[in-house]
Amino acid sequence: GESVGLHLPTLSVQEGDNSIINCAYSNSASDYFIWYKQESGKGPQFIIDIRSNMDKRQGQRVTVLLNKTVKHLSLQIAATQPGDSAVYFCAEEGAGGTSYGKLTFGQGTILTVHP
Amino acid sequence: NAGVMQNPRHLVRRRGQEARLRCSPMKGHSHVYWYRQLPEEGLKFMVYLQKENIIDESGMPKERFSAEFPKEGPSILRIQQVVRGDSAAYFCASSPGSESSDGYTFGSGTRLTVV
What we know:
By secondary structure, chain A is an all-beta fold.
């Protein structure tokens, strides 16, 4: 998807397709990254996380890829289902004691899955 | 095992009134974080507290906002003399606190509307 003005990027897929949601982060010192799913009227729900000493981590139907060289994070969802429709946020946490507990969230991407 | 409990879910205040938002962390969690979310934006860190201590309040506005996490009872985010710009969703998260990888669990938020 592409962003226009202040609107969130959007991604529309058909049920059963694979989805890829991207996130660029700015802090090269970030040590810990998390993907969250947020449905309307609800709080962020943890999906998967990854530390900076890894470049790939897999969960159930989800994979997170981390490219520290270009400061890029992606979330891959296999066999996307209508229930996956939500806003997806990446979040980063810096290394070191003063950064603990302070997550910096990305802009968010709206994923819409069509039956 | 109840998750992070926030109340009220919705709060309407007139300009100049006080807003008090409550957060009860997950059982066994002693670290609490408050975030604010404006429409179509990611969450912005406000404050990180442990029992009876403010660890990091770098995201809190200098005036009118305060937070506490007493020895007994929930964490409270207090906004005095609310203005229209305070209208937002306020989310609380908690963690066991020992390691980032223990994860942060978010509540469902309090939606504050200032009229």
